[in-house]
User: Fold this.
Amino acid sequence: MSGSFETRLTQARQEADPAADAVVAAFAARPGGEGWGLLEAALDATPGTVPGVAPEVDALLRPLRDPPAWLDLDLVDAGAVAYWRVGAPLLFLTLTYGSLAFGYQSADLVRPLAATGRLERMAPRRIAETSRWTVAVTSPGGMHPGADGWRASVRVRLVHALVRRHLLESGAWDPAWGAPISAAGAFATAIGGFFVIPVRAMGDLGVRFSPSEREAISHLWRWIGYVMGVPEELLPVSARQAEAWVEAALSHGGEPTEDSPRLMHALLYHGLNLGPASPVAAQIVGALSRRWMGKEMADRLEVPGARLSRLVPLVRPVTRARDLVRASGLMGSDRRVAQLELALVHRTLALRRAPRGPLDPRDAEAEPVLAA
Assistant:
């Protein structure tokens, strides 16, 4: 890893998201949620067709509608297909108990969550909202400018700006911690939490990606990170660079806080919302988290399932058998497999009466922690 990236990462801990923060500040001066209505009109319209668009909204959306020269939307869609062809169950496990758990190792990522209390009090709902966003942004075509995933990412980016504004105005945020939901944290979440960590965990479960698939998935999350406000110089240009940079981010994100075990407990025991079966489920999914974060960190976060973690490799033959069937063509093309897996997720979320979409700024603004 180059010293220049390390320096840039350190600076990014002090940086927020000026474009999104400017929109939230401008909307705060408008009455009764009027600003969010204007945002929706701007998101849904053809550029230049909505008169009187706030300059802050235009500054936010213009670089997202006219993307950088490096963007290859065909490669983005190929990354989406590769992401889902592994199967929804494995992807859910690695994203939830690999990626979310990954975030609890870093004070930079833990402090905003602990301050809002959303994961501890509303673990199933937050996981469902995150699932809706993940499905939207990783569906083939979903991240084309103006598409569902693209619009959802803009909204979630503004939710982060709302939370950041609340934390800074509350007086409870110590400036020594850096910016709340910082640029460094946004990088760690997009590139680490949704690419490097789950791909690594899927490998532990027997999934094998080709080099071209890894690069396609990396490109997908590079573009998602860009739309979510990650500074361009913090977006890796290859899968190998992404892996090196995420390791650096982990070492710069600070140690776990006293809130980390509490948040981990909420994820493991309440995330699936299984009632009396939750303690048993926590042992099983805890075994996965322990393998993927390492024994020392798992002990610090009080993750259960130490004995069961040795049984995780038993999943690999099942994964590889499925992959052989997929590679034979019996399941159809990889795009068809991805579409079937996405349809399964949509049905599952509907059956569990999950929120119909990712968290929206209007809903976030009405939550007690932000409305207070």
